[in-house]
Design a protein that fits this description.
heterodimer, A: 148 residues, alpha+beta, Sufe protein. Chain: A, three-stranded antiparallel beta sheet, 6 helices, 49% helix, B: 417 residues, alpha/beta, Aspartate Aminotransferase, domain 1, Aspartate Aminotransferase, domain 2, 2 domains, seven-stranded mixed beta sheet, four-stranded antiparallel beta sheet, 15 helices, 40% helix
């Protein structure tokens, strides 16, 4: 297994030049988690508008896989409805379990993370941002229910 | 038995020692296996593997309770292992050795059997910022159960402990001092005898986490005058789940049992039980028999080399590694003087995350450990989320350090700016 399979060019690009890595003042959604095994840390912020993720950003520190995954996530779910984002998170998890064939259209750059599946120790790095997103979405869901 | 080991300039012949370890026949990713993770677990020589196999093939039986020949042999070998380990660390008597899975279980045993029995609200447990989670979390459980509080000796200059305020840290409230014998992250060697004397001057006991100390140094618990020392056999060429706890006999006598069950009892009644004397009071259920017998072969192997030669060899590799890592642009944590530290060398390399770094190193056959090394408090003090750690043992060579440095060049190729 060549290392290039894991560290694809597009992953290193997201790592070195992360997209949407910034604070998001006034964000309705904000959630932070870390990976106790390695200390990686990711916070996701999002603006909500008409049940959609109108703006999304992340902050954090950690290895290339965790940070690239977060960067790709912000591009992949921007503008999506909460349900669509939830659905993509589930499919992303499925890809990391080797059960879901990623489709280019909704996955975009995320397809590059497929190689991580062959490095079981690193899967949790790739999934961390998605754990944060799903926890944030669950919080949004509860808030929406409470306001009805 | 190990062959006679040639000593070169006071140290040892690591290339020859390597040949005793079957695992070095492996060639990960087609490369020479460069194993720099002995602080995590050590590799095992053929002699240890054979001893475990021999026990299962020729002597296997449970201890104490049967009257047939096999059981008598197994019991005799197990008790010989206790005496062997006692002698190895300078304990006055085999009954001072409680066998169990190693340091984590041993510290939990003391925190339960001594801490919960004798600590009261307002008492203090003194740890240090160097500690491994296994020497923190059991004391947190103990503090929660008793109302005692935890205090930490701070890190001082160059990875040493700051003992300038020791008089204010060790007070008459202090009941337990629990301290590492050698840091698993930055190799610090705290002054154990001085800490033992301070602890005893206020009537406290001292517990030494010996997981990293015992495999790499000549240790004499009588000279150090510590009350407890933990031993992790798997880090000293022995089988996993071997080792245990040294305790002063008069302290062990006063303690509560830890796990309850078979073999640790004298009499069992409907409403209460009575217990055997130490060490058996602390050994419930079927023990790690083959492992402790395998540990004897590990001790034989180490003593044939000589613990002074082990330490000298690691000092030389540590010196060489720190020099080469620093030259390569890495930041090495802790002391840079091998006289004052052990051979666990943690470093930070050019802002490349340790997990990424270790992944590339793996491809070159170089095994290191990335992460927080079960020492999150120390990571916060050092101001890093994680480090990469290279650690050495009797089978490592200068060539291994060279391989590490060369592999760091490949890391640059992937992650360099």
């Amino acid at each position: 297994m060549a290392l290039e399979e894991l560290y694809k060019e597009v992953i290193l690009d997201h790592y070195k030049s992360p997209r949407n890595k910034r604070a998001l003042p006034g964000a309705e959604l904000s959630c932070k988690k870390n990976n106790p095994l390695c200390g990686d840390e990711i916070t996701i912020h999002a603006h909500l508008s008409d049940g959609r993720l109108a703006g999304i950003a992340f902050e954090g520190q950690g290895c290339s896989i965790s940070q690239a995954s977060a960067s790709m996530l912000t591009e992949a779910v921007a503008g999506k409805s909460l349900q669509e984002a939830e659905g993509l998170a589930d499919r992303f998890r499925g890809m990391m379990e080797g059960k879901v064939e990623p489709e280019e259209e909704s996955f975009g750059d995320l397809v590059a993370l497929r190689g991580v599946v062959k490095y079981p120790v690193r899967i949790k790095c790739a999934v961390l941002a998605w754990d944060v997103l799903q926890e944030a979405l669950a919080g949004a869901g509860r808030a929406a229910e409470a306001s009805h | 038995m190990a062959k006679v080991v040639e000593h070169r300039s006071g140290a040892l012949d690591a290339e020859r020692i390597r040949k005793d370890f079957p695992i070095f026949e492996r060639t990960p990713h087609g490369k020479r296996l460069v194993y720099l993770d002995s602080a995590n677990t050590s590799q095992k020589p053929r002699q240890v593997i054979d001893a475990v196999t021999d026990f299962y093939e020729r002597h296997n039986a449970n201890l104490y309770r049967a009257v047939y020949e096999l059981a008598e042999e197994a019991t005799a070998k197990f008790e010989q292992a206790r005496a062997r380990l006692a002698a190895f660390i300078g304990a006055p008597d085999p009954s001072c050795i409680v066998f169990n899975r190693g340091t984590t279980e041993a510290i939990n045993l003391v925190a339960h059997g001594y801490g919960r029995k004798f600590l009261r609200e307002g008492d203090q447990i003194l740890l240090s910022e160097l500690e491994h989670h296994s020497n923190i979390v059991p004391w947190q459980f103990c503090a929660e159960a008793t109302g005692a509080t935890l205090e930490f000796i701070p890190l001082g200059e160059e990875g040493s402990l700051d003992l300038s305020n020791l008089d204010r840290l060790i007070t008459k409230r202090t009941k337990i001092v629990a301290i590492t014998g050698q840091s698993n992250v930055i190799g610090t060697l705290p002054p154990l005898r001085r800490l033992a004397d301070s602890a005893h001057s206020v009537g406290a006991v001292i517990v030494v986490d010996g997981a990293q100390l015992v495999p790499h140094n000549r240790v004499d618990v009588t000279q150090l005058d510590v009350d407890f020392l933990t031993i992790s056999g798997h880090k000293m060429l022995g089988p996993t789940a071997s080792g245990g706890l040294y305790g002063k006999r008069e302290v062990l006598d006063r303690m509560d049992p830890f796990l309850g069950g078979g073999e640790m009892i004298m009499e069992v009644h409907r409403d209460h039980s009575t217990f055997k004397d130490p060490p058996h009071k602390f050994e419930a259920g079927t023990m790690n028999i083959a492992q402790e017998i395998g540990l004897v072969a590990a001790i034989d192997y180490l003593e044939e080399i000589g613990m002074d030669a082990v330490r000298d060899h690691e000092k030389e590799l540590t010196r060489y590694a720190i020099e080469r890592l620093t030259d390569a642009g890495a930041r090495v944590f802790g002391s840079h003087d091998p006289e004052t530290r052990g051979g666990a060398v943690s470093f930070w390399y050019r802002d490349i995350h340790p997990h990424d770094l270790a992944q590339v190193l793996d491809q070159e056959g170089v095994c290191v450990r990335p992460g927080h090394h079960c020492a999150q408090i120390l990571m916060r003090v050092l101001g890093v989320p994680a480090t990469t750690r290279a650690s050495f043992y009797v089978y490592n060579t200068h060539e291994d350090v060279d391989a590490l440095i060369e592999a760091l060049g490949k890391v640059e190729a992937f992650f360099g700016a």
